[in-house]
Design a protein that fits this description.
With 827 residues, the protein is of the alpha+beta class. Helices cover 37% and strands 21% of the residues. It folds into 4 domains: 181 residues, no CATH class; 102 residues, no CATH class; 222 residues, Sandwich (Immunoglobulin-like); 153 residues, Rossmann fold (3-Layer(aba) Sandwich). The strands form 6 sheets. The protein has an 8-stranded mixed sheet with strand order 5-4-9-2-1-13-15-14. It has a 6-stranded antiparallel sheet with strand order 6-29-7-8-3-12. Strands 22-21-20-23-24-25 form a 6-stranded mixed sheet, with helices on both faces.
Length: 827
């Protein structure tokens, strides 16, 4: 039977999804009480007056007699208005996606059970089941908002906004009336009870899982008591018990990543740090934590544990200002591939918008860039007053000092790019205002990976301000002759060796090219010549002792396989001391070590570096060396490498590498190669690790299967640009890490001046050098940041020295036209 609704009710049903759409587009802001956050409140007020159209005749107008569905529609719109205003005034933190979806279902069920005509049985049953779930949700919000009811009553004089605080309570009462008095003909009490009990069961299950993982992490206290001689900080032992990043965020992130209940009158603990920019209010978690309790650790310890176990390190980096309202609106990526040199250079430009409507609001953007292995930053630009300003290279200390003074005190324009452990960079940009989009560009020089007969390019991954709905243009150009590039279907070929993508933000793609011979052309600068050669191995490393870095990522079969393949070689693992593995203790050692989510193998305890082989496998998340500073472990690491001779040979099972191992490889304290399951089974251990003969003026890039060598150039060849300058940039970066990685790990003041000179000449970001853009020349002079005179300066897309051909100029025009369209459309 067709349901008969009055025109007023139809208007209400049309307004409800409209308010939900408006809620979706309301930006997160900081208590401005203006703009889109108030629109839904206005719609609720409008519908209140429209509903007078259904006023029954011969009744007092002021008795507010309306059909039940009208009141249900009004309260549903008001609840949407509640969550819209919450995006502005932050009574609660962000609403998780699962709850937003659930509330949509609950609100429609809340409205349609009030229809005064019988709905199909299946629909009534479904609506009743959802209503049961909704009762528990509304009960939760009613309870946590109880302390605010006095405020709601007093605040009714303020435009009536405080009525939002009692909306969940009013809706809860209306639902209970529908069920108990059966005043809604479409309510099926049995299905309501089933829905309610199902919701309670889910809550109990969630609470049980929360308790299990909390107790698992707290079991680290036993290890702390039993292992008094542990060299690691206590927080590392807690982090090693975090077997699930999902639950680590929830058990340790209360008050940081998630709202938590407190005993004060307001009911919640508030945090305005970087974590608060993504903090959520999860009713399931808040209830579970109230029942089970929280893990009592300091915020500093929790931040370190989360960084090491839940990939939240981006939010732990220091910021001077909030970035809550920032959003990446669009991006432009321009890629140059040099298959004859097995390297790439790409520039990524971001437009950052501030959604806060207060004109004077200034916020700080933080980006973390996850680089391809072996890559280095070689360019940085910031647009000031519409003009691109190129960066200057300076020491890390000078850059940090200048940025803190200008941003923290003077509040003017800078951007700074720092090197971080684990193949990461961080960039901070200030100020980002609502008046115009802030534009910043970073350039990366990266080796390409060789696998079989192909070369692979992958872009960097980025963490930063919210990029939901952002648009991106990607232009890829291959320098030199090559066969077709294998790209995702969303790329269109626009000209010879040139491809274009135009769509949503896209950073999870890959380019594949067939391997071609290495170029014999070189690049010369300041009397030095840089060229590429194939990395050739004619022998293998036969270790005399094997060390296994076992953790939760290992299977018992893998450990047994390594032991068998080692043959007569002694095999060691590390518990709280180096333990020799044999058949009698292997199972026990595996059970003990596999309890750790990650491992930090004490490579400084390996004395026979020349003859030892470390075999490792691990999840990416782990501490990085500098996070261990101050511990006996870190001091032992530093002391050991003060007598640094050569890197330790290290094998990565299936290429899996933790941030800890990746950092040691960056410092050139480990020399890592990968081995897959087929190679482990088909070859003996003395054929697992290849050895290369390298002179002191060459650096190896094993993943690209090539070396870059440096030699004295003839006078005629000085400053030759036949090859790309990226050869020198990559060489100097890896040479710096090779020559001084052990000193850089210590943050030593005894770093030779030649190390700074090499960074300056190649214009690269390293542990001792950073790129920075300041607003005025006087700022550079004040902080003694001189412009490099005899260096490569910022890298650029025309590095090959080739002049674009006519068809290339046409493509450039197409790219500019498309990007201009995207820019002005979304401006």
């Amino acid at each position: 039977m067709k349901t008969q609704l009055s025109p007023v009710q139809k208007i209400g049903l049309a307004l409800l999804p409209m308010t939900m759409a408006i809620y979706h587009f309301v930006p997160e802001s900081n208590s401005s009480l203006e703009g889109m956050a108030l629109i839904n409140y206005g719609i609720a007020a409008l519908y209140f007056f429209i509903s007078f159209g259904d006023w029954p005749k011969k009744t007092n107008l002021f008795r507010l007699v309306r059909p039940r569905i009208n009141w249900h529609i009004l309260m549903a719109i008001l609840l949407v208005s509640c969550f819209s205003l919450n995006k502005d005034v932050h009574v609660f933190a962000l609403t998780p996606l699962w709850l937003e979806v659930l509330l949509i279902l609950v609100l429609f069920a809340f409205v349609f059970i009030a229809v005064n005509e019988q709905l199909p049985l299946w629909l009534s049953n479904s609506l009743s089941f959802i209503t049961g779930i909704g009762i528990l949700v509304l009960l939760y919000y009613t309870i946590v908002l109880l302390p605010t009811i006095p405020i709601a009553i007093i605040g009714l004089i303020l435009l009536g906004l405080s009525i939002h605080l009692v909306v969940p309570f009013i809706m809860l009462v209306m639902l209970i009336q529908c069920v108990r008095k059966q005043s809604c003909i479409n309510v099926r009490p049995k299905f309501v009870m089933t829905g309610l009990l199902s919701a309670v069961l889910i809550l109990m299950t969630y609470t049980g899982l929360y308790a299990y993982h909390s107790n698992k992490i707290l079991s680290a206290q036993e290890d702390i008591v039993l292992n008094e001689e542990s060299e690691l900080p206590e927080w590392v032992l807690y982090a090693q018990k975090c077997h699930s990043s999902f639950w680590a965020k929830r058990t340790l992130g209360l008050g940081l990543l998630y709202d938590k209940h407190t005993s004060d009158w307001w009911g919640f603990d508030f945090n305005r740090g970087s974590f608060s920019e993504i903090r959520e209010h999860d009713p399931l978690l808040a209830t579970a934590a109230l029942r089970q309790g929280t893990i009592e650790l300091s915020n500093e310890e929790k931040v370190k544990i989360l960084s090491a176990s839940a990939n939240t390190r981006h939010y732990a980096y220091e910021k001077l200002w909030s970035g809550r309202d920032l959003k990446v609106s669009k991006a432009l990526t321009d890629v140059r591939l040099y298959p004859a040199y097995r390297l790439a250079y790409f520039e990524k430009t971001f437009w950052i918008e501030n959604n806060n409507k207060w004109e004077r609001n200034q916020q700080e953007a933080l980006f973390t860039f996850y680089l391809p292995e072996g890559a280095v930053a070689s360019s940085l630009s910031l647009w000031i007053d519409g003009k691109e300003e190129k960066s200057r290279l300076t020491t890390r200390r000078k850059a940090a000092t200048a940025y803190k003074q200008i941003v923290g005190v003077e509040q003017r324009d800078p951007v700074v790019l720092h090197w971080q452990e684990g193949n990461r960079l961080t960039a901070t940009i200030f100020p980002c205002t609502s008046s115009e989009a802030r534009r910043v560009m970073i350039g990366i020089t990266s080796p390409m990976k060789q696998k079989g007969g192909y070369l692979y390019f992958e872009p960097m991954q980025v963490s930063g301000p919210d990029n939901t709905g952002a648009k991106e243009v990607i232009h890829l150009k291959v320098i030199g002759d090559t066969q077709q590039v294998h790209l995702p279907r969303s790329f269109d070929k626009k000209a010879r060796n040139q491809y274009l993508y135009n769509g949503s933000l896209f950073d999870n793609w890959q380019a594949r090219l067939r391997l071609i011979p290495l170029s014999e052309k070189s690049f010369a600068f300041k009397g030095k010549e840089y060229r590429v050669e194939a990395l050739v191995s004619d022998r293998y490393f036969d270790p005399s002792v094997v060390y296994l870095d076992v953790n939760r990522e290992w299977t018992q079969d893998e450990m047994e396989q390594m032991f068998i393949k080692a043959g007569d070689r002694p095999v060691y693992v590390y518990t709280n001391e180096l333990m020799k593995v044999d058949l009698s203790n292997m199972d026990e050692l595996y059970q003990q070590l596999s309890e750790k989510a990650f491992s930090l193998f004490p490579v400084h305890k390996i004395t026979d570096v020349d003859s030892a082989l470390l075999i490792t496998k691990g999840q990416k998340n782990s501490p990085v060396p500098t996070e261990l500073e101050g511990s006996a472990f870190y001091n032992g690491l530093i002391k050991s490498f003060s007598n640094y001779r050569k890197p330790l040979s290290c094998l990565l099972i299936n290429g899996q590498q933790s941030d800890y191992i990746a950092s040691l490889e960056q410092y050139k304290l480990l020399s890592c190669q990968s081995i897959n399951s087929y190679e482990r089974e088909s070859k003996e251990m003395d054929q697992w690790y290849s050895q290369y003969d390298l002179n002191s003026n060459a650096i190896a890039l094993p993943h690209s299967n090539m070396i870059i060598s440096c030699s004295n150039a003839d006078n005629e060849l000085n400053n030759r640009v036949e090859g790309p300058s990226h050869l020198m940039r990559l060489y100097n970066y890896h040479a710096v890490m090779k020559k001084a990685g052990h000193l850089l790990l210590q943050d030593s003041k005894q770093i030779p001046e030649v190390i700074y000179d090499m960074c300056d000449a190649a214009y690269i970001v390293s542990p001792v050098s950073s790129l920075i853009v300041l607003e005025t020349q006087k700022d550079y002079e004040r902080f003694d940041i001189d412009e490099s005179v005899d260096s490569l300066k910022n890298a650029n897309l025309k590095d090959s020295g080739a002049v674009p051909e006519p068809h290339e100029w046409a493509l450039i025009a197409v790219v500019l036209a498309i990007f201009s369209f995207v820019y002005f459309k979304f401006k």
